[in-house]
Amino acid sequence: MSGTIVLADTNVISELVKNKPDTQVMRWLQTVQRMAISAITLEEAHFGLAWQPNARKLALFNALVERLHAVYAISPAIAQRGGALRGQFQAQGISRSAPDMLIAATAMEHQLVLATRNVRDFLGCGVQVINPFEAA
Questions:
Q1: Cα–Cα dist 117/85, whole Å
Q2: pTM of the predicted structure, to 2 decimals
Q3: Of 120, 88, 81, which is closest to residue 103 (Cα–Cα)?
């Protein structure tokens, strides 16, 4: 992953703040030089931490965010791309969530590799996806 910026999906970030994170994810993390998240992931993480408060996880999450390469905002271009993606899938009878399509659009817009456990949610989106929960 040298030089590549990895856009981490919420499930990857959530794993990193667990008491016992997945060993495969932790091995993968050692290969990542620059990691970023979408503002969508920031919202989802804070939702989870407000819904089920955990001071240790909040502190770890905040420290992680401080070390990230970037937190990408949802720009008009990303919103348009995400909406178009979701609409194209819907026209094929495939339902995709707005948050997932905005994360995919962020990866597309900034030419990032998307790291997620939920690879199926991003199939056909035109982004490079890796699953850090599986051995390379």
A1: 20
A2: 0.94
A3: 81
Task: Tell me the domains of the chain and their CATH numbers.
Answer: 5-130 (3.40.50.1010)
What order of strands is seen across the sheet that includes strand 34-38?
70-72, 34-38, 5-8, 113-115, 129-130
Nearest residue to 127 via CA among 68, 119, 10: 119
Give the angle subtended at the CA of 81 by the CAs of 77 and 87, to the nearest 5°: 145
- Summarize pLDDT for 111-133 with one digit per residue, the tens: 999 999 999 999 999 999 999 99
Of the candidates 119, 105, 110, 125, the residue with the CA atom closest to the CA atom of residue 40: 105
CA distance 31 to 7: 14
- Identify which of 129, 70, 80 has the alpha carbon closest to the alpha carbon of residue 101: 80
Distance of CA 44 to the CA centre of its chain: 10
